[in-house]
Amino acid sequence: MKQFETVIGLEVHVELATKTKIFCSCSTEFGGEPNSHTCPVCTGMPGSLPVLNKQVVEYAIAVGLATNCTITQNCKFDRKNYFYPDNPQNYQISQLYLPICRDGSVEIETEDGGRKNIGIHEIHMEEDAGKLVHDEWGENSLVDFNRSGVPLIEIVSEPDMRSADEVVAYLEKLRLIIQYLGASDCKLQEGSMRADVNLSVREAGASEFGTRTEMKNLNSFKAIRRAIEGERERQIDLIESGQKIIQETRRWDDAKEYSYAMRSKEDAQDYRYFPEPDLVPIIISDEWLDEIRSRQPELRTEKLERYKREFNIPEYDAGIITSNKKLADIFEETTAICNNPKKVSNWLMVETMRLLKEHEMEPEQITFSPENLAKLIQLTEDRAVNSSVAKEVFEKIFEEDIDPEKYVEEHGLKAVSDDGALRSTIEKVIADNPQSVEDYKGGKKKAIGFLVGQTMKAMQGKADPAMVNKILAELLQ
Amino acid sequence: MSLMNLTAVELGKKIKAGEVSVEEAAKEALAAAAKKEKAVNSFVTIDEEKVLAQAKEVQRGIDAGKYTGPLAGVPAAVKDNMCTEGMLTTCSSKILGNFVPTYTCEAVLNLERAGAVIIGKTNMDEFAMGSTTETSAFGATKNPWNTEHVPGGSSGGSCAAVAAEECSYALGSDTGGSIRQPSSFCGVTGMKPTYGTVSRYGLIAYGSSLDQIGPVAKDVTDCAVILEAIASHDKKDSTSIERKDCDFSTALVDDVWGMKIGIPRDYFGEGLDPEVRDAVMAAAKELEKKGAVIEEFDLSLVEYAIPAYYVIACAEASSNLARFDGVKYGYRTDGFAGLHNMYKKTRSEGFGAEVKRRIMLGSFVLSSGYYDAYYLKALRTKALIKQAFDKAFEKYDVILGPAAPTTAPRIGDSLSDPIKMYLGDIYTISVNLAGLPGISLPCGRDSGGLPIGVQLIGNCFGEKEIIRAAYAFEQTREYEHSPLA
User: Fold this and answer.
1) Which domains does chain B have, with CATH numbers?
2) pTM of the full predicted structure?
3) Are B229 and B111 in contact (CB under 8 A)?
4) How confident is the model at residue A416 (pLDDT cuts 50, 70, 90)?
5) How far from the centroid of its chain's Cα atoms is residue B79's Cα?
6) In A, residues 362-421, which contact B (CB 8 Å cutoff)?
7) What are the structural domains, with CATH classification, of chain A?
8) Active-site residue B154, yes or no?
9) Residues of A with CB below 8 A from B83's CB?
10) pLDDT of residue A417
11) Res. A255: pLDDT tops 90
């Protein structure tokens, strides 16, 4: 049987985190009333003119620098001409001839633990389109231009990936870099990061690439994985049955786990690109570039080193925490308050991860404040709550960001360390469970566990288990 | 004598002195238009009520000391490709026949800040594509000197309105000669500033890299004063330039002693009407008499300007006009089956023949496989033309030549032969390609009585040089009012 190799390149669109649009001063805020964030420029009114948002250029440069690109210091915008109602001017201002960044790379870890460089062909800046709303009852479609003019960068990779794992590793790496730069929140589900997959297969060892297809509508890492597997199989089936692959754009339907042809290369539109005459060339001086370079925040590799050095937490923990900007931010902010990096790391590594998984959430969706986590850590340090109560309180913090001090107080969860009350409860437990006492005295040391449990139950969980053990052992002597 | 016989600055003085009220001036303009529009058809829209309300408002502003400039209270007309809030802005096209903008063009706002009263919107070639004002969807404008003839274009409405004295002055736009050529045909003075001097915000684009708004008036003084009012650095237009030398009226001096004026031999070759040639050469002689140094030279590349211009302007236009699709505003076809058919029918019905011709030409030169051969080559030609001018301006302060090869053709003669019409732009379009300032002013009339214009071209930012030369020449002759004035 023939062996096939998959060749994959990605086009990743990232929505930049600017407050205003790329060519006008309208807000980029998500979810306003339809057409409430619009003006003559982003609705393509006659006579309106674009003015470039400088922050877009700075974000694009920052991403380019962090992905080892060469910055095009004399770059330009071009018009991409095509008719569609979500595109108010019927052209999109993008970059074709002189994209802002070129020839970069990011390093990923492969499944076997090795390292591999994925080349970046170019990064260019462009504007997003509006949104079509199909009127379910009428015959019309309506257009909402709130998204029109929201700034995007498109990161075009080289065809360097060979598996879904590599694709996901590359996307995760890109996302991490961009989140660290603060250039975007990169949410796949909400569309602030979108990936189109260009895929071809070839017989293992072949030097030529096969014919590729482009797949769109991939809204999650899972969908991307399934789409890659599905498309790989579809192409291999075609080749093995002696058919040709058609170069085309396909739309992935994740529910049906199949892709459908949208348009072939033959119907590909001629976009009639030409330099945008309404914008002047962007001249990026060495000084400007140096200034942006000097402002680059600490990226993950540097942060990881610093964590190991400064906080003395296990490498594994530091790796997980720095793998997400939000987690790293919470870690640093909480540690700054309570000065207990090990405990903070523990809460993030164990309970936070468990709850994220349970709620099917991404770390970006965490809402609790470092202040409340720090307070909780302080409570446990002071032995004011025992660990099981602390876990219960943390769930509340995770869900509603409650103040743990108040919560413990109001719900009477404070650990009972009062020796007298505890001692009399334990005496009662001993009196009520003669069998267990006998077992214990007869050498079945495990029987003490049952007695501890009974005591905790009687104390409604508020006792410190260490203390219970200690008193029990003492009374049973 | 009508107040409309006066220049804008003369009328402004009377208003300032309180001899004439703003309302009186506006009423005279409206009355003149009411009387002459049937013959000349300069305007697409006149909103009398609005004009009178604005006149009252401006008068209050003058009385309160808000408007103190030379144009305060003077009635002006604006070409119908400049957006005016709440007032129809059609580009003389069916596709924008019902379009009322939500904002006002920056240049018009600047005029209003100077206290102008906007009488109405002037007729033009549809989307400024044409040299005769015959491609307007609202009928051709006639030349006030002889209504059998065209006024030129595309700012034919603005130039005819000034020549017919339906307003004191007007704004036009010039992409390939659209202010200078009709000014020449109508016997008025029109000026195209250096690219970037006047904001294009709110000017409905034809060829974005070539379009510039400029004044049309009875004389050079008015033009200098109007340009002073409309020039501004506008952050809303990325191609707008910050200039510190916009005090153009300081150049209104009758002194050209020692000024070096170059006459390109290339502008006096085949196709130039001998009567035009003689009148233009006579104008050069007048300047020589005043002490200017006149010299003939070879500019070169002139024959490449027209093809380069039509490639670049049409390419930009094909994209600029894509937004007129029946989706958001303007004309939409009545019956259609689906989106694609709606686009097709709307645009087929909404645009006139010349506009369609240029959209097709522009789409072709940008299409894959032709881009390098046409568009890139045209851009390179544009750069070479700029270099040729740079070289000339190392030697000369001003370049002098005709504004057009002939006087105004008869109505109907040009539309049948578009290539001939395109060739008529030969002396004006290189100025747009090089981004230079140019002015056209009357220098005589042909045997049929039609006006002839002389064009003065300056280096980048050299408005003051051409204003000075034009002003000096203007002092040698009297302003001739058109028969319709």
Assistant:
1) 3-253 (3.90.1300.10)
2) 0.89
3) yes
4) low
5) 8
6) none
7) 4-288 (no CATH), 298-410 (no CATH), 419-476 (1.10.10.410)
8) yes
9) 45-47
10) 61
11) no
